[in-house]
Amino acid sequence: MTHPISNEHTPVQSTLVVEYRLRCVAGESASVKAEGIALEQTVELAGDCVSDAIREEWVGEVLSLSELDENLWRCRIAYNPALAGEELSQLLNTLFGNISLKSGIFIENIDWPVAMLKAFGGPGHGIEGLRRHLDVPGGLPLTCTALKPVGLSPSGLAELAFAFACGGVDIIKDDHGIANQPGAPYRERLAACQAAIERANQQTGKRAVYFPNATAPARLLGERFAAARDAGCFGVLLSPWLCGIDSIRWARDEFGLAVMAHPALTGSYFQSDHGLDPALVLGDLFRIAGADASIYPNAGGRFGFSVDTCEAINHRLRRPLGGLRAAAPTPGGGMNVRDAPAWIERYGADTIVLIGGSLYAQGDVTAASKRLLTALGR
Amino acid sequence: MTHPISNEHTPVQSTLVVEYRLRCVAGESASVKAEGIALEQTVELAGDCVSDAIREEWVGEVLSLSELDENLWRCRIAYNPALAGEELSQLLNTLFGNISLKSGIFIENIDWPVAMLKAFGGPGHGIEGLRRHLDVPGGLPLTCTALKPVGLSPSGLAELAFAFACGGVDIIKDDHGIANQPGAPYRERLAACQAAIERANQQTGKRAVYFPNATAPARLLGERFAAARDAGCFGVLLSPWLCGIDSIRWARDEFGLAVMAHPALTGSYFQSDHGLDPALVLGDLFRIAGADASIYPNAGGRFGFSVDTCEAINHRLRRPLGGLRAAAPTPGGGMNVRDAPAWIERYGADTIVLIGGSLYAQGDVTAASKRLLTALGR
What we know:
Protein name (chains A, B): Ribulose-bisphosphate carboxylase large chain
Structural class of chain A: alpha/beta
EC number (chains A, B): 4.1.1.39
Keywords (chains A, B): Lyase
Oligomer: homodimer
InterPro entries (chains A, B): RuBisCO, RuBisCO_lsu_C, RuBisCO_lsu_C_sf, RuBisCO_lsu_N_sf
GO molecular function (chains A, B): magnesium ion binding; ribulose-bisphosphate carboxylase activity
Order of helices and strands of chain A: EHHEEHEHHEHEHEHEHHEEHEHEHEHH
CATH architecture of the largest domain in chain A: Alpha-Beta Barrel
């Protein structure tokens, strides 16, 4: 699969520039802290144990350091992109591996070298590709729901899939907690739900898709992807923090699958003084790795993201970025049918409305889905 | 590979019992918070959307809830172990996937069902297996160092490997930041370093081993493991949070490799009011997944763990646990040669002393390694 780079104007930059906000404790030197990060995340040795040649090529370079407030600093460090060796697992390690074990280090922004963006490639389909496949024109939002709860049989899940598809939901995914439990193992569930969606599409004339949760141990990922592709699925759901962020790229490149990414296990990085900005993880990183859609917990639901955070994620997923396709923001986590139109008004139509519980709560999920679609002007 | 279960007396328990410390904000009900976790981590639906049969079998059961202090509670929730579907990725999801995105939830303890311990299997070699292979009798600590910095060529790294092995270091691993960078790609580095170790062993008559860093994207893990095994390596280094925790089990079962686990990217879970106890992640979880040794940042080094935290990790790695082999605590992260004997005095001999920088700082790493071994009574 090729990933054409557009002619969009992007300043060409050859280093990976990471911008940190540093919280120092009393007596801690911000410049020692910054230099410590530049060594820790590269050579893991004291500066005087490193040759000039290695330092020049591999140690991070502190570009700037400025005081924001008492004991609060901003610093920018430039890294050699070759540190990542074209592997997203090692990119994450370079960004936050060892320093996750320190404190007072928060990554606010990353300037990506264009060559790195090209190498990782971004979404294979993106918002436009999803629209084309689902036959939903620009200006209208896309919709998604989740099959649940865990414990249902493959036929029980398939029945729900059929009902949602008849109601007009575009993307019907497994709940991210449905993996390979006894009673509904992956392959049986996949076959039943995909068949149900196809049956519904024949009735409705629409093009709903089923995204099975393919998150799995590394040794099983390849066969899960192959099974999804062979069953005719357009895409899969993946939780990159459970199965490795590089698995998104694998699903894209070797299996041609679209990927919807789920934020499970990422929340601990989103502290105020330590971690990474959620928009970098759920926006930039997931998009760069190849996610066509990125689920995040919407403001006002069961989780604690602010509207500002959600809009920052939306921006990172859709902004011009080295020619990468735009990915679809997928707010969920307790959004209800009543409020969905207002959220789309706010976030824009290039958004996937992910609603589960609020449809289930209405009993007849086909009728509930139809009401959602109508409310969204679909 | 079989994992014989000893006759050790372990109370048989059929559910996965997770003990949380809950920090409530003003006006937040601890019981609502506890019930919310039990639903969120299982069915992801409101309780009234779930049938009695599903609730009975799959929803977590709040066993107890007690107040510790103002707005601070302890609660125990029992889960059906089948939620994990015998996959460690899904076990992590059940433990902390969605609730990582909430706040004020800290997992203090986990009571593991014996059947789950048997299924995941634990270390393939453990401390005793490492001792046997390395020919180091009980009562003496093991030693480990890291090849670095990134930027050295395979022959440069191999030269260091030879020098450390001649100095008597038992386990010579890649630095965890050395992945597949240009200039020292995995296969060339593996061949050069393994040959260097074997050459050194012929000279010294000792049994040093080289653990290459096999951490990689999921699609490449299998071939990295195979290459390590085929080169004659006894084990590999893995960062489970970068490549998926299940990859430890894969290295053990399909390739017979020993695994040393590295804590990269785990630090964000170790907050005081939200996350998991470090001893659960770097102790229980890594051991259960099959790590024979678990690296953690020792107290007094470049990172912030307390001695109590380190001792809790040691305990979790070595305590009786459903017949699983004991894994080797591997304190590192800035330990120096001078203090190593005192740490062993404190932690006990069933420990791997991991020292990098303090050996490099002495210039002649063979001589420095010999001094370390002598200091440790080896």
